[in-house]
Amino acid sequence: MTLKSFIHEAISPWMKNEGPESDIVISSRVRLARNLEHVPYPIAASPDQLAEVVNQAGELIGDGSHDRFGRLSLVPMEELTSNEKRILVEKHLVSPNLTEEKENRAVILSEDESLSVMVNEEDHFRIQCLLSGFQLEQGMACANDMDDWMEEKLDFAFDERRGYLTSCPTNVGTGLRSSVMMHLPALVLTKQLNRILPAINQLGLVVRGIYGEGSEALGNLYQISNQTTLGGEEADIIKDLSSVVSQLIQHERDARDQLLEQSRLKLEDKIYRSYGILSYSRRMETKEAMERLSDVRLGIDLGIIEEVSGGILNELMVITQPGFLQQYAGRSLTPAERDERRASLIRERINLENTEEISDGGADA
After folding, report:
1. Residue 208 annotated in ligand binding
2. Which of 104, 206, 232, 333 is most buried by a 10 A CB count?
3. Where are the domains of the chain?
4. Do the Cβ atoms of 95 and 123 come closer than 8 Å?
5. Which positions bind ATP (predicted)?
6. Going by C-beta distance under 8 Å and a sequence separation of 6 or more, which residues neighbour residue 77?
7. How many separate helices (H) and strands (E) can be counted in the chain?
8. pLDDT tens digits, one per residue of 174-190
9. According to the annotation, is 211 in a ligand binding site?
10. Do residues 37 and 157 touch, judged by C-beta distance below 8 A?
11. Cα separation of 182 and 314, whole Å?
């Protein structure tokens, strides 16, 4: 399989679109936690009870079609290899928790993978919508659409005073977790982010790494999400998060302008050094790859690098992860082999970009 065809098959269709503010906001995610009435939560349910939840999920999607989301598929986790599970995590379609070696777990996926519904993770159902760029309100509408459709056929645990009941008390109420993935290299370079993060936390929001709770902020990518779900309306939660994200976007833009005005040569040197290393390196660990790709993406967004498309960061931050590297190789790889393959894949992707640029230029001429 060529790299071009692998990227086409590997990258979720929603990731190929450029949403609003996509130079800073990589993606928006809205997740709703729901549980069935009169069925113990997954942590306390018996195998038979968990199996019944999966069966109800299968009956829910029926022939696999939905007016908004198109074809839906139920994927039992126990039918996947460990690497296939890892890939679902790397694509942010499921949590690491869902991939643990336990029976009667599944995920419902839409054809474009903008919708995923985890079955028997911490809650019976976790509805998740992913969209490119800054689209929290659209993500909320997407999640609500699926929630309403499911609630027509299923009885969810709901209390008139507390709202939706969930396994974790912090999710009780709306059951809503909304987040955005942001690329904030200029705030990191100007050392402003460490000053801003405590203020964000005081507003009832939380900042996490690329894969959520407990993960590292690789490549200057940060998830900003709400913490409070009880006592508020869904629209207010989305509005509050959107307000903070809008301010962060402006702070990042101001920091980028500051770097261009005060340290342009130093910035260009950093960006082109990373571009050169990515273009010629023979070994590359995940952390360094993400840092170098962040530099190049910043250079693209600032117009310093013009021969490479901005979507290259979205693609490479996914397909250079361990699961995808092994999928592309067609076998398990040792850490050293993954580092070698990662560098080779990045070189090949940059070369593919340059070749297409030359080809396009020739066609125009």
Report:
1. yes
2. 104
3. 1-11+29-173, 255-357
4. no
5. 27-31, 92, 126, 177-181, 208-213
6. 85, 94, 98, 99, 105, 106, 107
7. 12, 11
8. 899 999 999 999 999 99
9. yes
10. yes
11. 12
Question: How many other CB atoms are there within 10 angstroms of residue 73's CB atom?
Answer: 12
pLDDT at 360: 44
Tokens 């309306």 belong to: 233
SS3 74: strand
Beta-carbon count within 10 A of 347 CB: 16
**260 vs 246, 267, 271, 289, 305, CA distance in Å?**
21, 7, 12, 24, 14
Q: How far apart are CA 56 and CA 118, in angstroms?
A: 13
Would you say 179 is a known binding-site residue?
Answer: yes
- Nearest to 307, CA basis, from 255, 343, 239, 356: 356
The string of pLDDT tens digits covering residues 95-107 is 999 998 888 999 9
Burial of 223 (0-12, 13-18, 19+ CB in 10 A): buried
The answer on whether 195 is annotated among ligand-binding residues is no
210 labeled binding residue:
yes
Task: Identify the CATH number of the domain defined by range 1-11+29-173.
Answer: 3.30.590.10
CB contact set of 207 (below 8 Å; sequence gap of 6+): 197, 200, 201, 222, 223, 224
Dihedral sign (CA 128, 129, 135, 138) = negative
Tokens of 329: 């190789």
One DSSP character per residue, 90-149 reads HTTSS-GGGGSS-SS-EEEEETTSSEEEEESSSSSEEEEEEEESS-HHHHHHHHHHHHHH
